[in-house]
Structure formats: structure tokens, C-alpha cells
Design a protein that fits this description.
The protein is mainly α. It contains 23 helices and seven strands.
Length: about 600
Amino acid sequence: MKNSAKRRLHAVLFGALLALFLIQGLWFIRANSQTSDEAVHLTAGYSYLARRDFRLNPEHPPLIKELCALPLTFLYRLPFQPDARLWEQAEEWRIGRDFLYRSGADGDRILAAGRMPNLLLGAALAGLTGWWAFRLWGRGASILALSLAVFEPNLIAHAALVTTDLGAALFIFLTVYLLWEHAKAPSWPRILGAGASAGLALGSKYSTVILAGILAAVTVLLALTGGTLAGGKPGKKLKGAGPRLLQSFPPLLAAALVALAAVLSVYFFQGLGTWWTGLNRVLTHQEAGHQAFFLGEYSTEGWVSYFPVALLIKTPVGSLLLIAASLLLFRQGQAMTRREAIFLLAPAALLVAAAMRGRINIGLRHILPVYPFLFVVASRLATLRFRTPWRRALALGLPVAATALSSLHAAPHQIAYFNELVGGPGNGYRYLSDSNIDWGQDLKGVKEFMERERLPMIYLSYFGNAPPEAYGIRYQYVPAFGHLERPPADLLPPGGGREVLAISVNSLQAVHFEDKNLFRWLYARKPIEKIGYSIYAYDLTGDAEAHLRLAEVYAKAGPKAFAVPELRRVLAIDPANAEAARLMALLSGPPQP
């Protein structure tokens, strides 16, 4: 095949893969309801644009939130008039709820519009992954790296949400890529571009301060191996790491000044006070820790093994095999040089190491930037020589196909993706929680389930901040974490047909409850459906034991008034149930003085 034909074929494949990424993202957007933080992020971004006031959600820098709010500014032009008391108190959760669901516009359409900019950033990250692989190892490597990125479920999920993780990953990766280009052929546009990208990263998420350590490590490692980050025309080769480090100082200083200007720009040049305030909040949160679940254990201290294990079980097996093979065969094909290892492996290692030291263990998304680096590493396998084309197709094509099939099997529920090493997403609840599996994203699925099963009302324990009523869900409240307002007092009518409990995985695990065994009784029962893998449905109809346990849940976690109707159901099914009679007498007795 002539070179021009190869170029055209490569361009077509590259474009088709990017289109596939966007299609998967759009599918995800249509299928998934609001996740825990999206209303807050979107409303905060809209408030920044409307009022140039950064009081809402200062614990996350504004850039991604502003970008996601832009479509709303142009398409809907919604008046931003929050309740004065809530605005004064910066009550971001209730302001976000009101903005998304009580603004007069369709909440789903507002959310979908807000998610689109992040999806485009995700496509840009996937494209940059393929481009860097092309710059290193050619067209075959480019398509291999891009394929892994396009079918990576964690990238798809977080590219289709109004959150900051994907944008942070893009700008970290772009910064290091531009630094690599600069080290290869020093020029001021490249180093200043790296500085601008670093500033955009710092304006996206506070965890990107790790870039300072990454850039320092890359600079030092380059100096130790004979390289430098000299700006302008390449300088003379200097002997000794010290002089080479000094030669790298001017371009890094220039990049730092550009980064500072970029951070100031996302705050409309109002100064860095808000940025520092938010950073201090994040550091305080990191010091205090966060309630988390990992392999059946609970902790606010975190686990050193959390992120390596999460990476191992939430990444498609085909991708893991290609990454591992590239590292093991680093001398085969076009061997990985020291410089390539410095720019690809050192940042990934530092990102994981920094996360392992932290106490916030609530999602693989916190190390999302490692994926593009590892996919570029894996793409080097395209330079290996095989005796026959079919061996090449088997060695590289089968793992990519396995990744694609595994990812598509979970679609459009990529938040809850787990690989086959642990039995797939249906078993994810045994290992991880929070944004790894249940971020409140499946209320649409609950409504579809109710319509399909002809259930006018259900029991619902929902982890999240979206109001179920906004999705047409009528329910009897079962204790859960995350509700913004008093739940409805509705009770499932007795003798009204099937009695089904839908419970979020986060509630099932009792992560945020004092009693970690609150819903353990459900583990022995088989759910009739796993809705999006994050909400499990159990049929309690005619099950005296289940209603008794549910009554105990109400008695322990409230509202206690709901326990008595459950006990009446128990006694209607099993009049001789002594435990139900005892608990009924206890709850119905005279109030204690």
C-alpha cells in the first residue's frame, strides 16, 4: 500500500474511533440520571458566569464548571435568581437542586447540555493519546493507543459527566506531552504551551498540584540522564547534572508565569484568594479522610493498596495485558528509551504514589490521568515484528477486541464497570463503592424498571442528591445517605400488589451508616434485578422475614414511625411471629419520660 493510501486509511480509522467515543458518551448521557455532584458543579459554573462570584463550591477550581455551564448560557439563558438566604449561606446543594429541577426548564435537557463540553474534552484526550503514540512509534501505535482510550469505560463515564476529573486528566497529559515535545526540539511556544496547560490543570482540580512534582521529577531525571529543558535554541551539551538543571530553570520559570496567568484568567483576574481557600479546604478534607469501603472493610484513613487494586479490577483485562506486555518486552521492537520512560512512566508512577498516600479512597477517577500514559506505553507493541500478519492480528487484535467487548457489555453503565477478574460489574459491590459503582446515576433505570414491572410505588433507599420525584418515582423512603430534603411520608399501601425494595449499592454496603450491618440481611437474598449495576431490586412480597428486618432498619435508622406499618405486614403474613409482636409492643408502648 502506498504511503498516501496509508495516511488516508489512518485518518479514516482515527476519525472513526473518535466518533465511536462520542457515540458511547452520548449513549451514556441519555441513559444516566444526575450523579451526586453534578447539579452543584453545573450551578456553580453558571453562577460564576452570571455573577462573577465564586462563593459556591470553592473546593473545586472553576474552569471545567465554567465550560460545562457555557451551553446553558447560550441555549437556555436561565435567570440565576437563587433564594437570597441560600445564596448568603452559599448553600450550594439546595441551590443546585433548585437550579436543575425548579428553573422551569427540563432538568434532563439542562444536564445533557452541561455534559457535552466535558465529552468533547474526553474526545480531545483520546485523540491526544493517539497522537502522542503516533509521534513516538507511528501509525500502528497511534491506532492501538486510541483504541484502548476509546473503549476505556472509566474515561467514557467521566467524560460524560459534569465533573472535574476528565478535564484534569486532559490538562495533566497535555502538559507533559508539550514538555516532551519541548525536550525533543526546544522552543518557546512549546514550553509556554506547557505552562498554559499546567495553569488550566490547576484551574480544573486541586489534585493537579501534583504537576509540580511531576515536572520537577522529569527535569531532574532528564538532567541525570544527559538531557535538559533549555529554552530557545538548543544549548551546548553540558557536563554534569547541576549545570543542566540550571539550564532548565529559565524555561520552567517562564512556564510557571504563564501557568499563573492561566489560573488567574479562570477567576476573571480577581486574584488567587478563592483558589487558596479552596486548596485549604481540600487539604483539610484530605487530613480528615473520607468514609470509604474497600474489600469488605470500612475506614476514613484509606488503604495503601486501594488504587492499585482499583486499577487492576476496573480496567479491561485486554488493556491490562497489553500494558504489561509492553513493560515486560521493553527491549523488543522499537525499544523504550530512557527519555520515553521518563515522560510516560514517571508521571504515571507519581500519580499513583501520591494517591496511595492520601486518605480519600472514593474512586478510581482520582487517578484517571494514568490511563493515557499507560495506553501510549502499550501502543509501543505495534512496533514488534511478527512472522506473519495473522500472528500480529492475534497478539494485538484479540486484547483490543476483548477490551472493546468487555466495555460495551457494561454500556451505558460504565461508572459501575468491573472486569472479568472479579466477575464483572454484577460483583462490583463486593469490592468498591462510591463513584466506582454507585454515584446516584440510575434513577432513570429505576423508573424504567417500575414501568416495565407495572409497579406504581416501591420502597427506595437511594444514595444521591437527585430528587426521585423529578423522575416520576413514587416511593416509600427507606434510610439512605444524601437526601437534601425531608423524604415523603408516603407508605406503600397494604394489599396493593408486589412489594419491591430498590436499594443503592452504597446503602446496601451501609458505608455512611453507623451500623455497617444495617442491610446485611439482603446479602442472603437474590435481587430480581440489578438496575445499572448500582441499584438492586428485591421482591419482598409475602416475605415476613424481610419485612421484619426492614422494620428493624426503620427502628434503628428512622423514621421510627415507618417501623409499625412494616410490623403489621409481618403479622398479617405470620400472626404467630413472636419477634414482630415483641417489637410492635416496644414501639407502640407509652413514650419514655
